[in-house]
Amino acid sequence: MKSIDTYDFSGKRAIIRVDFNVPLNENFEVTDDTRIRAAIPTIKKVLAGGGSVILMSHLGRPKNGPEDKFSLRHIIPAVEKNLGVKVDFAGDCMGEEAARKAAELKPGQVLLLENLRFYAEEEGKPRGLPADATDEQKAEAKKALKESQKKFVEKLASYADVYINDAFGTAHRAHASTALIADYFPNDKMFGYVMERELKAIDSVMDNPKRPFVAIIGGSKVSSKITIIEKLMEKVDSLIIGGGMTYTFKAAQGGKVGNSLCEPEMFDTALSILAKAKDKGIEMVFAEDALCADAFSEDANTKECPSNDIPDGWEGLDIGSKAKVSFAEHIKSCKTILWNGPVGVFEMDKFATGTKAVADAIVEATANGAYSLIGGGDSVAAINKFGLADKVSYVSTGGGALLEYMEGKELPGVAAIKK
Ligand code: AMP
Fold first, then answer.
1. Distances (CA, A) of 108 to 53, 83, 111, 164, 359
2. Which of 94, 134, 349, 413 is spaced 20 to 30 A from 379 at the CA atom?
3. DSSP code, position 320
4. Catalytic residue among 221, 276, 322, 385
């Protein structure tokens, strides 16, 4: 496998799949440039090595071709500001302008292509089928799209001499720009620095963790976290279960959970997780108390209850004060910490203090030498909300990609570079 650190970019045109799927405000200004900043070291490396750069990305979820609100043109100022280099733009990633501008690139120059998802070929999912389309029509549309997808990939590949994938967030998708294009660069394909760092961080936690290793799994439902919980049980010494999931476990064991989130169809699964943990000697840590509310609202009345004895009309929306202390103590006694999912409805300040206590404990453990990896959309949003992102070891940029990689699935974007 080629490495970005040793590859000779001199005189080469590198096409880089970046993740510029950034949030924009109503004036189309970038409101959070984290992903743009993340891509800068890879771009600078190519330019410093005497190469030129073609950037390609998606933005949002356009479903019917070009739409101004999803145009990557809006982000040019933010890229230029972070990169310190002028960025040219091609307003159609398949257009004559894109081909010409790519061909004319000189060392040190940067070209950004318009949103790849203005074409259905990027994702390879047929668009515009009537709601009542038959299976036959769907298969027909898919076949036609496969043909035109090949041309789409070929054209993108024709712009460059080297392919770099630096978009971890979409690495779990077998899209044109994240996976298929790699075949056109058998000897000139590699990961960018974002991808390298992500894979290294996850591998270091999953393959060779310092012990004790705790995973904190929060969020809303058991059903959405079951695969990752089962996978983690092969690796961890203990699991802290927080968030809405708590009440499915408590109810499955005969507890009273009032109006809390609860999935009766997952009772058997919850009980089998507990049995498996016992078999394997994994410590399962639950919140002994809950901060309960009489409505799912910032204005609700609140009181603390045992998390297995919540009165009717009340629901657990955060961990209680005893659990804050016991979670924090447990976290601080560990050497590897993986955190996925908030332990309460942290979006409302009233129910964010449990999640904040978890974040504070992770920060303290990290300062004392533990390795901490925060991954999955909502725990990343939480650590950012508390302004603590730079006080943990690593904050992953990938939600779905991170979970699938940890579950042991092969990510198409990773496999395409490695093969
Ligand atoms: P997930 O995407 O599964 O990680 O879920 C994240 C969501 O879980 C966040 O929006 C939280 O507000 C929500 N959540 C966390 N704890 C609870 C709870 N006790 N009851 C309901 N929702 C919760």
1. 8, 12, 10, 16, 42
2. 413
3. -
4. 221
- Calculate how far, in angstroms, residue 98's C-alpha sits from the geometric centre of ligand 1: 43
Average pLDDT over residues 363-374: 97
Cα-flanking dihedrals φ and ψ of residue 23, to 5°? -75, 140
4: Cβ–Cβ under 8 A, 6 or more apart, which residues? 42, 45, 46, 164, 190, 191, 192, 193, 196
**How many CA within 13 A on the CB side of residue 93?**
32
Report residue 377's pLDDT band, with 50, 70 and 90 as the boundaries: low
Helix (H), strand (E) at residue 215:
strand 213-217
Give the closest residue (by CA) to ligand 1 atom 11: 345
Nearest residue (CA) to ligand 1, atom 20: 244
Q: How far apart are CA 361 and CA 324, in angstroms?
A: 10
Ligand 1 mean position, distance from CA 223 (Å): 12
Annotation says 332 is catalytic: no
Residue range 207-255, pLDDT digits in tens = 889 999 999 999 998 888 888 899 999 999 999 999 999 999 999 999 9
CA 128 / ligand 1 centre spacing (Å): 34
Question: Residue 25's Cα: distance from chain center in Å?
Answer: 21
- The separation between CA 357 and the C-alpha centre of its own chain, rounded to angstroms, equals 23
pLDDT at 211: 97
Beta bridge partners of 306: 289
**pLDDT of 4:** 98
Q: Could you tell me if the CB of 406 is within 6 A of ligand 1?
A: no
Residue 173 known to be catalytic: no
